[in-house]
């Protein structure tokens, strides 16, 4: 069918009766049609393939040669012919007239068919345009988690897509969705007057709940505003809606809100297609509001956790500072006492000073561990440089040797031949080895042995690595607890039972630092036999 009114309609007449054929062609031509002719099945097929037509006027004897398509078909029948309704339904638009009726009647029926086809095309185009417009509304709803914007996208989009006068939306109090309300009014119109069914909170909820349970909408009839006999306006200049519909918004068994849409007097009745599309949008609306509420709640929890984490960090930093200051004074006075600044020490006092000194050192390390933990998640980048692992280990072992000697422990260190260099933050790597070796000393009974060794491993398909192993003959760790040793403040049950001092931070800190160096820390232990801690770091191949 042509869209340009200045272009004549095109008809194809297929009739084996030459007299009737000529009459039909003449009548259609007189009515302004461009007419083509066919007299049998062969010429009909050729004509159908050659160019399109707006209507087909076909004798019933040639019906079986017609394709099933969207071109309107007018069949010419004899009164005694049995009308095959199923055959008519095979064509999108079809009608019939009797062969003996005047040619002018055939022209009239052909024009009616063309008009029906045009209206069908218009409706399909309008439905597709509406579907696309509401698809954009759904996409806009899904594009944000702001409940206010979601409601705004809904009322604006529906109002413009449906050519409405007013769109109004509200949610009901519900823990699953935020409380939100929005309204849209066509340009030049003041806010609409809500129908009686929606003015009361209880009645509004009851209506929406019933509609949601029945999976229906509620069309509201045309109304004349009170005090206005002409029906043109409401008191105060507000225009009252003439035809509107109430659409529930819900999820599962519970209703969450309601949409009210009012259209002008001139609008057609609400179609099922329109209602279906609006219901589809309301489904996306419910999902979007629930998601926004859930994500908003999660964000609030996250903000609270961040505040708590910052408060924890600030607290630890303050406590560390407050502890470090008196500890510095204590250790300074201990050093002065040892050097004789206060005079000779009475017999037995030297051992007391040693005990005080060792516990002061334990307190200093605990303070440093707590400070490290508080900064683990907020510390900046590593200060990388080439670090000689052998040299670093010797430094750490020499620092901890007095602690081992006080327990009559054998502390040894051995290295594979050659230089082993890694790219690392030297201060943090020193902290790793200090924590691991001091742990081994602490958990090994008097007279035991702690062995530190290092070497290079080059396994197939793996980057060459430096491996440091710290083996002790200590109390060991229960097999069921090995996986927890990297958890902050976790202490093995046998350590607590034996009253071995510690904070449960050493391995957690070491594990975090090693992972930040793209390395790996492993623990193997046999209860009552000993523990082996291995640190694997990528070898600096340029060394």
Short description:
The chain has 543 residues and is an alpha/beta fold. It has 13 helices and 17 strands.
Describe the structure.
It comes from Arthrobacter gyeryongensis. It is found in: Cell membrane. By secondary structure, the chain is an alpha/beta fold. The protein is 46% helix and 19% strand. The protein has 13 helices and 17 strands. The protein has helices at 18-30, 41-50, 85-90, 103-142, 147-162, 196-199, 201-214, 272-338, 349-375, 389-406, 426-442, 493-497, 506-516, and strands at 10-14, 34-38, 55-59, 73-77, 94-98, 166-171, 181-185, 218-220, 243-251, 254-263, 385-388, 410-415, 421-424, 449-457, 465-472, 520-526, 530-538. The strands form four sheets. It has a five-stranded parallel sheet with strand order 2-1-3-4-5, with helices on both faces. Strand 14 (449-457) and strand 15 form a beta hairpin. Helix 5 packs antiparallel against helix 8 (272-338). The chain is elongated and about 140 Å long. The two termini are 82 Å apart. Mean pLDDT is 83; it is low at 225-241.
């Amino acid at each position: 069918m042509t869209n340009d009114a200045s272009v004549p309609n095109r008809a194809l007449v297929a009739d084996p009766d030459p007299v009737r054929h000529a009459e039909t062609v003449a009548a259609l031509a007189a009515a302004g049609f461009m007419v083509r002719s066919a007299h049998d099945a062969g010429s009909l097929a050729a004509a159908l393939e050659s160019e399109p037509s707006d209507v087909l006027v076909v004798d019933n004897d040639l019906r079986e040669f017609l394709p099933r398509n969207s071109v309107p078909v007018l069949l010419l029948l004899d009164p005694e012919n049995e009308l095959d309704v199923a055959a008519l339904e095979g064509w999108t638009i079809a009608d019939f007239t009797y062969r003996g009726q005047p040619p002018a009647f055939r022209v009239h029926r052909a024009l009616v068919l063309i008009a029906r086809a045009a209206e069908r095309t218009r409706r399909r185009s309008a439905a597709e345009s509406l579907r696309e417009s509401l698809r954009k509304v759904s996409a806009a709803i899904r594009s944000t988690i702001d409940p206010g914007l979601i409601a705004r996208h809904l009322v604006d989009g529906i109002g413009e897509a449906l050519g409405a006068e007013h769109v109004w939306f509200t949610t009901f109090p519900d823990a699953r969705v935020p409380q939100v309300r929005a309204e849209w009014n066509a340009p030049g119109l003041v806010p609409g007057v809500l129908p009686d069914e929606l003015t009361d909170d209880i009645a509004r909820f009851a209506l929406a709940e019933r509609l949601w349970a029945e999976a229906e909408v509620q069309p509201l009839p045309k109304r004349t505003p009170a005090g206005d006999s002409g029906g043109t306006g409401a008191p105060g200049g507000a225009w009252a809606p003439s035809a509107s519909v109430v659409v529930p918004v819900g999820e599962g068994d519970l209703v969450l809100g309601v949409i009210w849409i009012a259209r002008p007097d001139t609008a057609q009745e609400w179609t099922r297609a329109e209602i279906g599309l609006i219901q589809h949008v309301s489904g996306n609306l419910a999902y979007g509001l629930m998601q926004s509420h859930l994500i908003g709640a999660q964000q609030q929890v996250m903000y609270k956790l961040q505040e708590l984490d910052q408060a924890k960090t600030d607290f630890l930093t303050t406590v560390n500072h407050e502890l470090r200051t008196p500890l510095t004074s204590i250790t300074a006075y201990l050093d002065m006492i040892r050097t004789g600044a206060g005079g000779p020490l009475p017999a037995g006092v030297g051992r007391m000073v040693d005990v005080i000194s060792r516990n002061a050192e334990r307190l200093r390390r605990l303070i440093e561990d707590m400070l490290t933990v508080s900064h683990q998640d907020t510390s900046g980048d590593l200060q990388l440089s080439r670090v000689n692992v052998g040299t670093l280990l010797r430094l750490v072992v020499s620092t901890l040797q007095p602690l081992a000697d006080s327990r009559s422990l054998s502390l040894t260190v051995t290295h594979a031949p050659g230089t082993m260099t890694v790219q690392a933050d030297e201060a943090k790597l020193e902290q790793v080895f200090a924590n691991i070796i001091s742990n081994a000393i602490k958990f090994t009974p008097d007279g035991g042995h702690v062995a530190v060794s290092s070497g290079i491993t080059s396994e197939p398909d793996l980057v060459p690595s430096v491996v440091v192993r710290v083996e002790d003959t200590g109390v060991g760790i229960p097999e069921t607890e090995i996986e927890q040793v990297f958890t902050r403040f976790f202490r093995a049950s046998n350590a607590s039972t034996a009253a071995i001092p510690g904070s449960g931070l050493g391995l957690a800190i070491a594990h975090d630092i090693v992972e930040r160096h793209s390395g790996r820390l492993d623990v193997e232990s046999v209860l009552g036999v000993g523990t082996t801690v291995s640190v694997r770091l990528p070898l600096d191949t340029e060394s």
